[in-house]
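pasting for the record
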Amino acid sequence: MWDLIWEVLHMGVLILIASYFLHYYAFKDGIEDEQNEVTHSYESDDETSDKYGTSNPILIKWLHFGGGYYGVVAFVKLLFIEFAQLKDFVSDWQGLDQFIATLGLQTIINFFVEQMKAFVQAIIWPTHYLSTFSILHCAIFVVSTYALYLLSKHWARKKIPIKQG
């Protein structure tokens, strides 16, 4: 039970913060729909800012995850994965000379493979919770963090007035 409380607390705080800033900048760019939802638009396969209505790379990454609550949790999970990879990289650091010596095509390929693995791991975040917690605990996690997501979205909406047009 303490694991669930810890997960709800630390993920909840991060979801609250990330959701607020993501929604703030999305609302500021005017990319929400009529229900104040910011979600991925499937109208185009083009990966440009025209597809999303913004050129903000952080918003685009969030929208790659689908936007909304699911996207915020996936975005936060991706940040955890990236920070863990950075920590491993720093702890294994053997100096600039060694890094330059190992830099090559294989390193570049490994970098892109790791990025894809991180993206997939982040996007399938529910599988982690379903394998770690019971269904009831997963429901508690989702309801708690979704409430924080809605609260932060509401705060961001209040900060940016609705555009008339």
